[in-house]
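Action item from last meeting closed. Structure (121 res):
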């Protein structure tokens, strides 16, 4: 077994609203199924917590979910961007095309900053 394969052998735990948080996050995140289920759970939870003055968008695999059920997501789906860096810019571009005048990207990732500056010049 390679070192990479060993890193991906964390314990499998279900991610559900009534299940306790794992005490060993490093081990939990080693399992790809755990990460996938966690990201799906967080995406669904975030769009159901939307507010009247904000629209929250997220992706689950190649599908886009929204806190606004009447929002047309056709231009965003299927979302085949593997990296969140480029997905962020896709969502901002769509918001601007939909008439939004302001968008805020909050990040500590320099790649996102460089892409945003280059794209929106």
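Sequence:
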């Amino acid at each position: 077994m390679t070192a990479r394969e060993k890193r991906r052998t964390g314990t499998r735990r279900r991610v559900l609203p009534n299940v306790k948080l794992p005490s060993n996050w490093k081990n939990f995140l080693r399992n790809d199924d755990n990460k996938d289920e966690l990201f799906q759970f967080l995406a669904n939870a975030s769009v159901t917590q939307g507010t009247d003055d904000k629209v929250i968008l997220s992706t689950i695999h190649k599908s886009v979910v929204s806190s606004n059920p009447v929002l047309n997501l056709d231009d965003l789906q299927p979302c085949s961007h593997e990296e969140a860096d480029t997905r962020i810019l896709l969502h901002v571009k769509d918001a601007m095309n939909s008439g939004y005048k302001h968008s805020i990207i909050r990040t500590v990732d320099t790649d996102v900053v460089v892409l945003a500056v280059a794209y929106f010049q």
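Note appended to the action item: The beta strands are 57-60, 63-66.
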